[in-house]
Design a protein that fits this description.
The protein is an alpha+beta fold. The protein has one domain: Ubiquitin-like (UB roll), CATH 3.10.20. A 3-stranded antiparallel sheet has the order 2-1-3, covered by helices on one side. The radius of gyration is 13 Å and the shape is elongated. It contains 1 helix and 3 strands.
Length: 72
């Protein structure tokens, strides 16, 4: 069985309706980086009605086990 890790994904959503790109940071639990990216596409597309080509992933990093989420 694979170990579940936490990945911090940073990016932005570019849509015509927004005056400037919407920047986001999302912590996702996944086994691989690409699974975390797929999850971000799913969540952001659902919440903001954004297509995959409107979502730009800028960075992906693994979060150490004891680190808190941003804003805590």
């Amino acid at each position: 069985m694979s170990e579940v890790k936490v990945f911090r994904v940073k990016g932005e959503i570019r849509k015509k309706q927004f005056f400037e790109p919407m920047v986001f940071t999302q912590d996702i639990a996944a086994t691989k980086e690409k699974h975390a990216v797929e999850r971000v596409y799913t969540i952001m597309g659902s919440r903001h009605r954004a297509k995959r080509n409107q979502i730009a992933i800028q960075s992906i990093e693994e979060v150490p086990a004891g680190e808190k989420k941003p804003g805590e």
